[in-house]
From TrEMBL:
Name of the featured protein: Oxysterol-binding protein
Composition skew (Basic and acidic residues), residue ranges: 621-645
Molecular function GO labels: lipid binding
Assigned keywords, A-Z: Acetylation, Endosome, Golgi apparatus, Lipid transport, Lipid-binding, Membrane, Phosphoprotein, Transport
Subunit architecture: Heterodimer with OSBPL9.
Catalytic activity line of the entry: a 1,2-diacyl-sn-glycero-3-phospho-(1D-myo-inositol 4-phosphate)(out) + a 1,2-diacyl-sn-glycero-3-phospho-L-serine(in) = a 1,2-diacyl-sn-glycero-3-phospho-(1D-myo-inositol 4-phosphate)(in) + a 1,2-diacyl-sn-glycero-3-phospho-L-serine(out)
GO cellular component terms given for this protein: Golgi apparatus; late endosome membrane
Organism: Pan troglodytes (Chimpanzee)
Places the protein is found: Golgi apparatus, trans-Golgi network membrane; Late endosome membrane
Family statement: Belongs to the OSBP family.
Residue ranges of domain PH in the record: 49-146
Top-rank taxon: Eukaryota
Length: 679
């Protein structure tokens, strides 16, 4: 990056350069500064910037090793360039590093080696002839790096001033007329300029953090600075009924009559209810979401909303327009994790601890694709405190048996055929039943608890999730803070796991969803673990929805299975014996859940609670949906004020707070004794 004279004038640059006589031997270094004599060995330390050049050894790779290369420090451009030799200096450089935001670190290996870590992630490992020569290169590089990094900061401040002036000029325009402040093109300019500056500021902040971290001590190999993953202690955030502003969708049941006293509505049916599985029927609701039409019609609303947001802003308290809502609650979306109950039940069928961990990873990676009901990224309803969702699945035992896979079929492709009508009519002892219940247990922060169990196979999963949304410029990120525990009581094993982040990308055009981040699965008893990485798409090239995973036996540090592919397409499992299996998610049969009809549901159950909003959205009556949603919000605020005034604590229905998490009130491990099989 070239800097102007006013922001950084290069001092003491000589017009003549005296080559070092020893440069051909790799031990010389020259400078264009007049503060030093013609001899390369007669230099004096100074704080001003110098153009420095000379031979250094550069580490290439394990095969090639160290090689002499001719390096040039271009202070004016803020570049470190290298050539094969001094004679090729007039040709195109073999390599170039931008020094703005770079970190220059002397190595602990010896007194001659140092590294140049560019902000792009590229690294040069270099070696000087002796300690003095290394010190000279390091000090000159650090001065140049600091100068150009500060210049970026000054330019950022200048650009921010111009951007603020642009926003002010747009907002000062009249709201009507030929050129108004609500003109769609101006709103686009306002939103994109704000997002661009926010992203640039975030990048600059990351450079500063990276620079500070390296100055305190070199980061371990492979360390990355995350954009979104907040390291938050949960213990100070789980406070129900906090006296704070309310979020958009934190709302009150519509089924409670308006004339009913608030005190009664707040305590309605707060005792746990035993759901009769016979009351549940196969779900016939169509959850497919509409295409882009409604989004394009409301484009100016989105632009105006984006222009008000700041990078990193918590969206929990931001009023979002109704038309971007998905026609179901977040609690119901969590139930989609169980859309393949056969894979869930098959985990406990594994003959060994290794097999069971691999089966869990297979179930985990196939549990995300059903969560999206359309190509457009839409937001499910924010559950209100006390909202619940119930459903179940009846799985024919014969179908589970056919889904108990073996790793013995090399190059096999796993496809689940749709369940036959005869299989689906099996009842009683011929079927396994998987029950699911979810409850919104906290309002600030928004925390959901969900629990699923298969009593016949003595297995259950309990999880709590705090969804934390943030504005990231031209996208929205949702961090899933929390933990889940799968209990296999037949084996006395517990598997702890976390969830990835979700991102809504391209929110100004056609929004789409991707997952990102690293998650872990651990079984303390067996010593097996899994590390799973959901890869976000890079700016240039790369595949969408890519995921990789490793299953490892920690005691022996042995990788027993590797996984790669896309979490919504095809997954490839490669085992330690070299055999491979493919799972095609596009052909994987999805088991429909069973739910009670609306008339049998509690007023706090998701579908009955949001019925009016859902019906209006289905009919594309956005204004009517907004009105129903507003009614729910106002009732929620009224009920919250009443609890605050009377000092009445909120009482959860199905989940109990334990430490930093939430646990179902009647988990299987409290009812069925855990089996301790002989090893």
């Amino acid at each position: 990056m070239k800097v102007s004279e006013s922001e950084g004038k290069l001092e003491g640059l000589a017009t003549a350069v005296t080559p070092n006589k020893n440069s051909s031997c790799g031990g010389g270094i020259s400078s264009s500064s007049s503060s030093r004599g013609g001899s390369a060995k007669g230099w004096q330390y100074s704080d001003h910037m110098e153009n420095v050049y000379g031979y250094l050894m550069k580490y290439t790779n394990l095969v090639t090793g160290w090689q002499y290369r001719f390096f040039v420090l271009n202070n004016e451009a803020g570049l470190l360039e290298y050539f094969v030799n001094e004679q090729s200096r007039n040709q195109k450089p073999r390599g170039t590093l931008q020094l703005a935001g770079a970190v220059i670190s002397p190595s602990d290996e010896d007194s001659h080696t140092f590294t140049v870590n560019a902000a792009s992630g590229e690294q040069y490992k270099l070696r000087a002839t002796d300690a003095k020569e290394r010190q000279h290169w390091v000090s000159r590089l650090q001065i140049c790096t600091q100068h150009h990094t500060e210049a970026i900061g000054k330019m950022m401040s200048h650009a921010e001033g111009q951007q603020r002036d642009l926003i002010r000029r747009i907002e000062c325009l009249p709201t009507s007329g030929h050129l108004s402040s609500l003109d769609q093109d101006l709103l686009m300019l306002k939103a994109t300029s704000m997002a661009t500056m926010n992203c640039l500021n975030d990048c600059f902040h990351i450079l500063q953090l990276q620079h500070a971290s390296h100055q305190k001590g070199s980061l371990p190999s492979g360390t990355t600075i995350e954009w979104l993953e907040p390291k938050i202690s949960l213990s100070n955030h789980y406070k129900n009924g906090a006296d704070q502003p309310f979020a958009t969708d934190q709302s009150k049941p519509v089924a409670v009559p308006e004339e009913q006293p608030v005190a009664e509505s707040g305590l309605l049916a707060r005792e746990p209810e035993e759901i009769n599985a016979d009351d549940e029927i196969e779900d016939t609701c169509d959850h497919k979401e509409d295409d882009l039409g409604a989004v394009e019609e409301q484009r100016s609303v989105i632009l105006h909303l984006l222009s008000q947001l700041k990078l990193g802003m918590d969206l929990t308290r931001v009023v979002l327009p109704t038309f971007i809502l998905e026609k179901r609650s977040l609690l119901e979306m969590y139930a989609d994790f169980m859309s393949h109950p056969d894979l869930f039940i098959a985990i406990t069928n594994g003959a060994t601890a290794e097999d069971r961990m691999i089966r869990f990873v297979e179930y985990y990676l196939t549990s995300f694709h059903e969560g999206r009901k359309g190509a457009i990224a839409k937001k499910p309803y924010n559950p209100i405190i006390g909202e619940t969702f119930h459903c179940s699945w009846k799985m024919p035992k014969s179908e589970v048996a056919s889904s108990v896979f073996s790793s013995s079929s090399t190059q096999g492709v796993t496809n689940h055929a749709p369940l036959s009508g005869e299989s689906l009519t099996q009842v009683g002892s011929d079927c396994y039943t998987v029950r699911f219940v979810a409850e919104q247990v906290s309002h600030h922060p928004p925390v959901s608890g969900f629990y699923a169990e298969c009593t016949e196979r003595k297995m259950c999963v309990n999880a709590h999730v705090w969804t934390k949304s943030k504005f990231l410029g031209m996208s929205i990120g949702v961090t899933m803070v929390g933990e889940g525990i799968l209990s296999l009581l037949e084996h006395g094993e517990e598997y702890t796991f976390s969830l990835p982040c979700a991102y809504a990308r391209s929110i100004l055009t056609v929004p789409w969803v991707e997952l990102g981040g690293k998650v872990s699965v651990n079984c303390a008893k067996t010593g097996y673990s899994a590390s799973i990485t959901f890869h976000t798409k890079p700016f240039y090239g790369g595949k969408l929805h890519r995921v990789t995973a490793e299953v490892k036996h920690n005691i022996t540090n042995t990788v027993v299975c590797r996984v790669q592919g896309e979490w919504n397409s095809v997954l490839e499992f490669t085992y330690s014996n070299g055999e491979t299996k493919y799972v095609d998610l596009t052909k994987l049969a999805v088991m429909k859940k069973r739910v009670r009809p609306l008339e049998k549901q509690d007023p706090f159950e998701s579908r009955r609670l949001w019925k009016n909003v859902t019906d209006s959205l289905r009919e594309s009556e956005i204004d009517k949906a907004t009105e129903h949603k507003h009614t729910l919000e106002e009732r929620q605020r009224t009920e919250e004020r009443h609890r605050t005034e009377t000092g009445t604590p909120w009482k959860t229905k199905y989940f109990i707070k334990e430490g930093d998490g939430w646990v179902y009130h009647k988990p299987l491990w409290k009812i069925i004794p855990t089996t301790q099989p002989a090893e």
